[in-house]
Amino acid sequence: MHRQQASDGSLYGSETDPAERRAAVRAGRVPVAVYGLGKMGLPLATVLAETTGNVVGVDVDAAVVDAINDGRSPVTGEPGLDDALRTVVEADSLQATTEGDAAAADAAVHVVIVPTLVSDGSPDLSTLRAAISAVASGLDPGDLVCIESTVPPGTCDEVVAPLLEAESDCERGEFGVAFCPERTASGRALQDVRGAYPKVVGGIDEESTRAAAALYDEVTDNEVHAVADARTAECVKVFEGVYRDVNIALANELATLAEELGVDVYAAIEAANTQPYCDLHRPGAGVGGHCIPYYPYFLIDTCETGTPLLERARRINDAMPEYAVGKLFAGLADAGVDPADATVAVLGFAYRPGVDETREAPGAAIASSLRAAGVDVVGVDPVVDLDGFDVESASVADLPDVDLDGVVLATAHPEFERLDWGSLDDLVVVDGRDAIEADAVNGPVRTIGVGTGARN
User: Fold this and answer.
1) Residue 199 bears catalytic tag
2) What angle do CA 294, 267, 242 make, to 5 degrees?
3) Which domains does the chain have, with CATH numbers?
4) Which of 95, 356, 419, 425 has the most neighbouring CB atoms within 10 Å?
5) pLDDT, tens digit, for every residue of 83-126?
């Protein structure tokens, strides 16, 4: 594999006129390698290929690489991605490989967007380190390394740059490193990458920041927001996720007060948010996904100063699936049903509607808690393959034929709006997302909300 090399200098340390550097990016004379072709990485690689016409994507999964080189997207649920990917592959603007070292040898810009998760409460940077080692194998003076993976503050300065220096023939100051966080959401990744929000960039030195800003100014239709340094940019991304986690935890704690206060917390929050200084999020049966449940630990585990608010928020949000199960069991007790004799359907194993992503999804935790109590669990999800969840799988259409004692709505997939509640009776229903219309359920079906109490 050999891609066209930059003929008029690299982005980092180049004395070429800025306008000429931008033209070089657009003309494909600055080859780009993207490491990680998952749910966020593939849309990013596709947009970079649209912009530069000269991108190699790297992934360890050969099946993913083969699909991309055939013009088929292995990522589902992303509007427009199938067509956009096919276009750039057919134009030879994007090709994929499992050979990270070869891609690194040909690239002048390296964009890393691999997962950084949490293991035993600590950030796991092993995948990031592996990607950086691949970059280092082909690092040349003038190369720019952009980290889009969410990382603990200080990672670019204390992990990425030292590793590049130790495993390459380059010294610090000969290459650039910048943190340029992805600000995308599943289901709208192309829109977000192309410019739904300002693009934040911050480098380990001024030249890294300038070079990253020059690259992303060609990629995004929005503004490029350069911050003081890489550490600040890393904090920006973590702070965004922590804000949402703490806000949701506040809403969830308020939801647990609903019956004592005698109010519908959702209605109270909606009214409170008409004040422009109030932006309470919505409570629910739990917080899932590859972002919010993990980012607080990037501060909790790495900062010597205590983080009691962040830790409390995590405990509250982690407890919400069990809280929903407790509501169900209280309802079953009122109906004279022993959980050990009950059959309960869990609606939704994706962490959010319409997205085939189950990481930390509340539905899985709810099903596990139910099984531990001896409940027979029926799982329903229109976008998730339920093999491996130890539940009996059923479709929405199947439910009227299943002898159920209860239902927990964990994810508000639009398909569940078509559920004919009138065909179900003698049920206890826990609405974990405030998604069931009040007039949709009547008769012997008892609905309990997470944040509203009993509705009928």
Assistant:
1) no
2) 15
3) 18-230 (3.40.50.720), 313-454 (3.40.50.720)
4) 419
5) 999 999 999 999 999 999 999 999 999 999 999 988 888 999 99
